[in-house]
Amino acid sequence: MTSGHVERGFEPLARELERQIHKLGGGAALCVYHDGACLVDLWGGVRDDAGTPWARDTMCVSFSTTKGVASTALHVLADRGQLDYDAPVARYWPEFARAGKERITVREVLCHRAGLHDVRGLIDDAKRLLEWDTMVDALAAARPAPPPPGASAYHALTYGHLVGELVRRISGRPLPAFVAEEIAGPLGLDGLFVGAPEAELARAARLLGKKGAPREQAEGAPRRAAARRRRAAFGMIERVLRLVGHPFEVRRVEEALAPRGIARLDFSSPEVLRACIPSANGLFTARSLARMYAALACDGSLDGVRLVRPETVRRATEVQVHGFDQVIVFKMRWRLGYHRIGTFRGVPRLAFGHFGWGGSGAWADPARRLALGYVVNAGSGTPIGDLRILRLNTILLECLRKHRARRG
Questions:
Q1: Strand locations in 18-168, DSSP E?
Q2: DSSP H/E element including 12
Q3: HSE-up of 360 (CA within 13 Å, CB side)?
Q4: How many folded domains does the chain comprise?
């Protein structure tokens, strides 16, 4: 059973959340805002392999869902006139103007066209992701490999350091402090951290495998065998997609998603959660994600707090890339740091947000003044979510349609 509250007419979301937790184990939380009001605030299951119940304030690491929060921080600076999307990155970060990157713009970074997706070639071990200066120095020295016109190449693990360093250079504050002071504080968010303080780690959920089992950290021969199986599967997918003219290459997937040692990095460990990895280690409640996106869904403000102006929301959420992404196969319709939102019944035209590995996700739809936040600690999925959030999205839109019909 789940705890929390759900408004009349939105009970199908509670039933779906309970079904998901029962099927995969672990725990999860879901929050929905509409027209600035909280309609759904639910949580359930367990937060660790000892069976500790998921509580109202439990937070969970949410992988690439973090990118949406980091992007929002940069849009706050753009809203204040401190950032020009079309300016070269090097205007704000002079050391970046090396190895052919002098003309790469902020806009190209935000829509994954900067050509810096290759984290595998950037660092010798995934633990370097925890070392801020190591990462930004390596990115400043890197030579880009831009995708062809009309395409993108998802910066799965480099995106956050690029955006976070821009925030630091412009504001003079590290990204964790900026998020705390300019987003979480003003909006009264109960759990929105990119680099969590030690005092907050006690309420962090552990990542679990299927049916709530501890997630194994692969070592030695089993890890190498799993890597071989993964490469074989990707190779088959590559051959099939090439037959229909798709530009997918296994090499790019490994470059963007698989730095050496990534299987040994425990993303729910205190060491990782204390670090700042804005592509992957945000520690969130569903409630905080939903409130942040609710502000964006409601012309940039919520409960009297203006995060950004309406025109900034419009600029940030215009589609920038219409072609295929060369890392994650699909047409993501990249905005400036956000992607399109899927359901099983179409794609809401103006909706935007970001999903993450493990199933989490959060999004806003200004046309419906609607926002959703979802965090979960069991399962794996794809780099940008899985079927669970698509089901929740589909049910939510149907519930909202019926809700509006009842109200006339």
A1: 27-34, 37-45, 60-61
A2: helix 11-24
A3: 32
A4: 1
**Domain CATH number, residue 115:** 3.40.710.10
Answer yes or no: is 191 within a domain. yes
C-alpha count within 13 angstroms, C-beta hemisphere, residue 159: 32
For 209-334, where are the E strands, in sequence order? 283-284, 301-302, 305-306
- Residue 259 CA to chain centroid, in angstroms? 19
Identity (one letter) of the amino acid at 217? Q
What's the pLDDT tens digit per position in 201-239?
999 999 997 555 566 554 445 555 555 655 655 565 656
Helix (H, G, I), strand (E, B) or coil at 405: helix
Q: Is the Cβ–Cβ distance between 319 and 112 less than 8 Å?
A: no
**What is the span of the domain harbouring residue 401?**
2-219+249-407
Catalytic residue IDs: 64
State mean pLDDT over 304-326.
97
Q: Which two tokens stand for residue 187?
A: 């909006």
CA distance 270 to 274: 6
